[in-house]
Amino acid sequence: MHRRLHGRGALFDVDPAGLAPRLVGLRPHQHRAHPYEHPDEPPFVILSGARGLGKSAVLAELRDAYRGHTPVALADCAEDQFRAPPADRPADSWSPLGQALLVIAEQLAAPVTGAGRITFPRLMSGLVAVAAGGWGDADSERIRREVERILLLNESGSWISGLAGRWAGKVAAKVVAAATGTGPLVSGAIEATLESVAEGFTSRRHQKASVWYRTYPNAGGNAQRGLILLSRHFRDGGGSREHAERHLVRALLADLAEAYAGVLPRMQRLGRPLVLLDNAQTAPGPGLVAAVLRDRGEGIADRVAFVAARRGEGREELPGAVRRGLPEVARRCDWAPDTTPSSRALLLSLPPLSADDTLHIVGAVCEDTAVPPHLPPAVHRLTGGNPMGVVLLAESAARALPGACSLGELLTADLRPAEDGPAVPAHEALLDRLVPAERLAELTVLAAAHDHGSACALAAALLPDTFGPASVRALLTLLADEGLPAVPGRFVGDPFVRTLLLLRLHLRDADHASWRTAHETLIAHYPDEAHARYRLHHELALGDTEAAVAHLRDTFFTADPRAWLRTLRFIASAPYFHAHDAEGRDFTGRGDRREAVALGRTDAEHTVPEGADAVLHLRIRRLLHAVWLLADPLVLPDPQVCDRLRFELEQLSNLRPAGNALLWRASRDWPEAALAGRPMDGPGDADGTTGAGDSDDGPDDHSGET
């Protein structure tokens, strides 16, 4: 059923049923009922996490799966229509949430299998009252345009649709006359609206809707006064506006509940209405979510299945939410709210794609193009299963193969993300979708940092003077809000995003000046031996290998074997975007000297430092280059280098009886992991640290100042 998605069966499966059919009450893509898991009140489902995990794709698939079978609406809170009012509409009579309710109701009104259009008389009346608050100096044409769009929410679409259309025009004319007359503007417009509702419809349901605002606080049982108060509260802004907006949300849900009331509607309408919110971390998302959760917490029930997607974890806005991984709710939600409104929310983190998912996507996109067997595992290792990364790298491979021989070449190859857009390098297309555009320049520089102090050092060297320590902390907060993981020892915790940012930093200047400045700055920032691994990591990024070899050689017999392996991996996690010449200088050729060094082809020409054990020195040198090459997320694993890595670690294990087991285990686990496209974890991670150098205790960050 989930034809365009991979790894999301927990949502869309039919037999046994996934989360969507259990909450909506319908099988995806079918007009067939399914028992509700929570018949009285469904959880407000929120898909959380960083960019690129496929949250928007899930919402689009949900819309397609249920459109035409049950009322469905999808609103993307990041769209321009929710950012500011139209040029001719005053801000005090418009809000993102009010606009969203109009957009959602317009979509929910569409007829579905076995049932006609839903009308929204309560919401219509409230939106007219709000709009009327901005008609003080409006021309009649603008008023008519705004009114007619709102009035169409009450268009039944039945056999009297022509009459309903004429009725809408009649109401608009009355409202325009009232709004442009000499009497009180808002009350005149509201009175005309309520009169027309009463005249145009005689059914009990519509009559009930026309007097619904009698219960508005301080309305005194008078619907017109209730709407006047609603309009006034909306114009007052702040908490008063939030109060009015909650009643507008309640009006939408009451209209939906009315559409399902009675014997005949219950027979005609299967399942629940489905409201989908994308980018719900931005307005109008938080207001709509809070209003629904608050009403549900106060016992005001509704019939709607809500599914929202947001970046970040939302711990401040939703402290009491139940949090689960998507696989945990595949067969049962295990959700029960408590007394807090936010406990009505069920936050689901979408898992990354599996290696098999990546294999299938790369194969499907590349079609008849011959794909190197190690490419899909390498794509999975680089992206960490990020769906956006997998798809765009597969598209780049389809264009660049068979000429490209590394993921680095796929990331720098031109890609056309949109059919009508310009071609851009693949890594730029990915960054455009994975990080906030307004902070891309700063993140590009700070991606090389490890903590606040080193980030401040980089900012002082490469960013404007206005970007100081406070700005660095604000950027860290932004990364957390975006849902990117916090990893000790890495300013940008997500390894895929960090790799893309570092590649952008390397290509920032034609001569790679910014790249060299960044690493030279960090080398100077870590002069003491306590932070030697950080200094050596950045020296290696500039092609200087001798100090790293010497450190690993001299500490091999004295350091704890587990700590030594971790240090090796951390140093060797240094990026390597271009080849280096024999002296370690960066140049633009395609050659990669790491393979030759790892396989011992340069041993004869290499000068061993005086006094060093030549056998141990050369072995450590070969080992460092092997790990550096195999840990590189942009290079396809080389089986020959894997064999050499196994041999070198095995030989080293014979030299350390006390650490024999750890070193020998690494000689088996690391080559196997590299060939399978996994990080070289293993014996060095028994203390809980994982990732080939991606996780570390982190340097001390006492004051945070450089």
Main beta-sheet annotation: 6 strands, parallel
- pLDDT < 50 stretches: 686-696, 701-706
Output the number of helix runs: 30
What share of the residues does DSSP label as strand, in percent? 5-15%
Q: Give the termini distance in whole angstroms.
A: 55 Å
Overall helicity: 40-55%
Task: Kindly name the structural category.
Answer: mainly alpha
Read across the widest sheet, the strand sequence of neighbours is 2-3-4-1-6-5
Mean pLDDT figure: 88
Number of strands: 8
Radius of gyration: 31 Å
The shape, in one word, is elongated
Would you write up a description of this structure?
This protein is mostly helical. The protein has 30 helices and eight strands. A six-stranded parallel beta sheet has the order 2-3-4-1-6-5, sandwiched between helices. It is elongated. The protein starts with 8 loop residues before the first helix and ends in a 31-residue tail after the last helix. The model is unreliable at 686-696 and 701-706 (pLDDT under 50).
